[in-house]
């Protein structure tokens, strides 16, 4: 079976190093992905997280596009509720003008940080008038339309518009993508439950989607199964649920406690979960990708490498490229 592989990078920091080192590693990884034949290289958006250096994907996209030649560069994704859709359209039209035919606009609706960072990002927003995400997406679509169809136009007009992706992990997000003509990316690196994947991709198809969906997964390939497991077995996800019913996944119990404090919650509870990770030799990881493709009909995977394997990322993506049918061809 044939499928494309793409990469998602959060620019994680190793202990004690400056953020500049993490960003230099991201550049090297993008250049390596291009040499290896990966289809896309996406960067994430996270705020006030001392372990991650990627807080402004649009800036990093411009930097990466200038240092690569062929691979598509994009956001995985811009967190639209924080921003003006008009400004997002202007920014990505400019990027698509600088790197014609190579820019992807991926958007999502997660906050990307703890409540204090969200409040700082939305300082000028009226909390009583938070627009629904679908309204923001519809407005963004309007500004990404040809200049004659949008008022005011989001200039410059690129030779080819950015390709549009909606990242989500629910049937509602999948339906929104299909109804707006955006490609849907199921965030399996956040929720790898096969039932959730199936429900969302089924909703996407039933809503009349024309383009094939993508599936993001957390994956690590190593020379041996034992090495891969040693790097991924310690991983955990802490799901915190506040007293108002709001739930979010975080990386540690300390982060969960801080999230509850910043949210002003009187009480909260946590649940430790094991994340879904495809780990093993390249052959073992590709067997899992083959299985996912056969079950869900996905023809492109977005690979997210776990932070515990930051120093092993390039080795992992090199091993995976060697076993990927499309890349090998």
Automatic annotation (TrEMBL):
Residues 144-169 are annotated as: Disordered. Residues 19-294 form the Luciferase-like domain. InterPro entries: Bact_Lucif_Oxidored (IPR050766), CmoO-like (IPR019949), Luciferase-like_dom (IPR011251), Luciferase-like_sf (IPR036661). Pfam families: Bac_luciferase. It comes from the Bacteria. Residues 149-162 have a biased composition (Pro residues). To bacterial alkanal monooxygenase alpha and beta chains. NCBIfam families: oxido_grp_1 (TIGR03558). PANTHER family: LUCIFERASE-LIKE MONOOXYGENASE, N-ACETYL-S-ALKYLCYSTEINE MONOOXYGENASE. This is F420-dependent glucose-6-phosphate dehydrogenase. It comes from Methylobacterium crusticola.
């Amino acid at each position: 079976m044939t499928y494309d592989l793409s990469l998602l990078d959060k620019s994680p920091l190793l202990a004690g190093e400056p953020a500049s080192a993490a960003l230099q590693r991201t550049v090297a990884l993008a250049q390596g992905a291009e040499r290896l034949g990966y289809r896309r290289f996406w960067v994430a958006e996270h705020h006030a997280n001392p372990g991650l250096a990627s807080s402004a994907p649009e800036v990093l996209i411009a930097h990466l596009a200038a240092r690569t030649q062929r691979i598509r560069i994009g956001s995985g994704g811009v967190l639209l509720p924080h921003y003006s859709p008009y400004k997002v359209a202007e920014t990505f039209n400019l990027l698509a003008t600088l790197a014609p035919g190579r820019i992807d606009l991926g958007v999502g609706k997660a906050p990307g940080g703890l409540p204090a960072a969200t409040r700082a990002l939305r300082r000028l927003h009226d909390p009583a008038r938070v627009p629904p995400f679908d309204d923001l997406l519809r407005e963004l679509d309007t500004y990404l339309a040809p200049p004659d169809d949008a008022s005011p136009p989001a200039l410059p007009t690129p030779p080819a518009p950015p390709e549009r992706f909606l990242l989500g992990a629910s049937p509602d997000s999948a339906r929104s993508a299909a109804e707006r003509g955006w490609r849907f990316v199921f965030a399996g690196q956040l929720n790898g439950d096969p039932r959730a994947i199936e429900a969302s991709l089924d909703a996407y198809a039933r809503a009349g989607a024309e383009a094939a969906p993508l599936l993001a997964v957390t994956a690590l390939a190593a020379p041996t199964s034992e090495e891969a497991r040693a790097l991924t077995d310690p991983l955990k996800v802490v799901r915190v649920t506040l007293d108002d019913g709001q739930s979010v996944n975080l990386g540690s119990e300390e982060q969960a406690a801080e999230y509850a404090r910043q949210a002003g919650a009187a009480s909260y509870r946590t649940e430790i979960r094991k994340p879904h990770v495809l780990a093993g030799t390249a052959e073992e990881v590709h067997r899992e990708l083959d299985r996912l493709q056969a079950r869900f009909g996905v023809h492109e995977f977005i690979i997210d490498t776990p932070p515990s394997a930051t120093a092993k990322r390039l080795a992992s993506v090199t091993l995976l490229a060697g076993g990927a049918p499309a890349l090998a061809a």
